[in-house]
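hey so i finally got around to running the thing on that chain from the lab meeting. sorry it took forever, my laptop kept dying and i had to restart like 3 times. anyway pasting the input first so we r on the same page abt which one it is
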Amino acid sequence: MAMNAGLTAALAQLPQQLRQTLTWDRGKELSAHARFALETGTKVFFADPHSPWQRPTNENTNGLWTGPAYATTSTSPSP
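ok and heres what got predicted. didnt touch it at all, straight out
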C-alpha cells in the first residue's frame, strides 16, 4: 500500500495526459495495481519478461544513467 501512496503522489504532479497509462516491470512492488488503477484512473500494464522495448522510457533512462557521462575512467597505469 505504501507503494500505491507514493506512486499516486508522484503521478499527481504530472500533467493529466501523462497519467493515463503506466507500464510496469514485473515485480511485487505494484501488487495492489488493481486498487491503484481504480483510485487514480490510470491504466496499468505489465511488460512481458525480456521485452525492454515495452518499457522505452525506463530503458532510455537506464542508458542515460550508464552512458558516457557516468563512465568511469581507469586509474591503472598503461602497460
